[in-house]
Amino acid sequence: TTRHVVARGDTLASLAAAHYGDASSWPAIATANLGRLMVDETRFVDPSVIVPGWSLELPTLDADGRTGGGTTPPGGHGPASPGPPADELIAADPLSSAGAGLPLAELAAAGVSALVAGLLARRARQLRRLRAFLRDEGEESPGPREREADLGALLAPFERLPLVDMVELAARKLGDAIATADPPHGAVQWLRAGRDGVEVRFSEPVPVDVPGWRRTGSSTWLLPATVDIEELPRTLDRGEPWCAVLLPLGDDDRGTWLLPVAAGTCVAVVGPRAEDLVRAMRAAVGTWSWHEELVVTDRPGEAAVAAGHATGRSAGARLSGSTVLFVGDPETLPATAKHACAVLTVRQVDDADVTVVVDSRAASAHPLGLTVRPPLLDPSWKGAVDAIASLRADGGAAATDGRGATEATDERTEGRDGDDAARRGDTDARGTPRPLVQRRSAPATLRVVERDAADGAPPDLFSWAGAQVAGPDHRPETPPTPAREGPEVRLLASVPGIVGLQGELPPKRARRAVELIAYLAMHAPDQVTGDRLRTRVLGSADADAAAKTLFNTVGAARRALGAAPDGEPLLPPASRSGHYHLSPLVTVDALRACAALREGLASRDASASVASLREGLELVKGEPLGGVLTGYSWWRAEGHERRVADAVVDGACALVRAALASGQLDLARWALARARTVEPYSESLTRAAMRVAAAAGDARRLYAEWQECRRQMDELDPGGTPSERTEQLYALLRAQLAGDGAQVALQASFAAIDAAPFKTVPSAPSTV
After folding, report:
1. Where are the beta strands (DSSP E) in 271-377?
2. In which band, very low, low, confident or very high, does the pLDDT at 209 lie, cut at 50, 70 and 90?
């Protein structure tokens, strides 16, 4: 690791280009430095802005894209950097325009700010994990559409943006201060988050101190960047934001500006790009960590129903201010709902509290006197944003039955019901705090399934039912696991690499060459266009530079791969139409693992099935790509990560059943450990782990698995609970270990729980 003192004009992309020869490697520098407190008592929170005089770590990237060590872990908020010698410091105002950078190429392409990108990326990560947790064995995970994959790749570097954490912690800290203020403070007009901290402005002077904040003017207060943002959450009393509706307005040299919108107030956005700004605001407002408390709707009836519940809450309601944001014409709201809703509209409203005039270059907020660079989300991205930030790809609200299966609520029906409810004065549950996934809790008294003697002996408690493993009689043929004959790409490890190369990769091109070969291998036998390789793999905003880089990278990869026995190159030249492909002799462990697991799940021979399942799981050497700091955003964005994880979970659950049936507890534990390396969030794996604990007679382990399942569910979906199926399984296993006697009846109840049908052959990996 080396250090670089930031000079005027530097950006992360320019530093990456100079240090690594690859501008798109800037996330490696960001990961090593974001969140750090600098010597000028400012904090690095936004990768699009670095300040002259800052000392940044430039991690050494190996050929695989990992760091050589000595950096802060991803998302970490380390101590202040030691900084450069005194004679190297640049005297500059920490908030001067010298430190302001233009948006990163990724942000410009998506039309969002760093804050909006961070909110969307974090929300996508949460829902990705929630879908994985809820998924039952054999259930096919939907693949992303083309535009969703593009957006996912753009947002990937912003998943752990400190700017998001700073805003949310400040909102909660301010909530504590306002709740205990005497006399009450005036309304907050705006919030600014920058490298110096988070600043708020009240509508009138505040005569008393705001606990934890520093006065910067008669009406303005700053939560300084020097505050310990890891310790701050433990100092909060209520931990609730003072305002649920925070709308991103835009950025300038001083940071990111947000508009709080309280109940009964209105923000009108007008101008040629009004729709685009409102689209970005709406995408962001529903992704704060308190999103489950907030209703965002453009249906007057639904807003009225939700507002009725918001105003009817007790004094102990979780959030102060409005929990309903109505996006539309305020004149369409019932008069009784206007005072309880925050309103965002693209109409000119004469009595609007704030009017924002926006064009392609700037947004001006009146009467606040703010002019900023706004996030303008192009309509072509709306579907992709809705898909990655919603529980269902169709954007519908989700509910689950006791088995954890999801059902989408049709938006048109929901809106119609909301309007009908408003006319009836119905007190529907909308607007009340609720988890994303509604699940039934298991009854306190479990119904034990009775079996007649004519039915024969109950199945063994841990039987591996042949019908579940072999599946129905008419199963499509499963292709055999491809054997490794030539070079193989290794992706099922924390560090990617290629074994079996015939030549050496040049150090400066090795990382990109490995990723390019990996991309082609994951899409084999399909051909990939050069344009796709430039955008998804090389990621350069400069088309000419990307074309040159592609030519050089492909050449290096071709020489290192070498030729097949017939003399043909394993990476042939591009076709006349600009398409690339690999020889079938080049394999990738991810696809080989999926093929082996499918083969094991489909086999009717128990020993052959176990052998194939073990073969597939043995290819897992660690968390796939867990040690990579830059690149490989396509792995997740295109759905490869999800498809591999699904196959591994299904294979591991099947192997656990087989191992328990033959009393091989060590094999069962090994299968679980391999699967959890790939997918740590899975209720199916939890059920398998609980069975293993019970088979070992380990009541403490059984309880720990149940508690961890509850913790994960609440983390991913606050207020959510494990499925009825999992809850009943835990109760039955606990009863078995307690030895309350009804062994036959208990076994019958296990059979009833296991009777829920599930698929056993994951879908074949597809390409985007």
Report:
1. 295-297, 324-327, 342-345, 354-358, 363-366, 370-372
2. confident
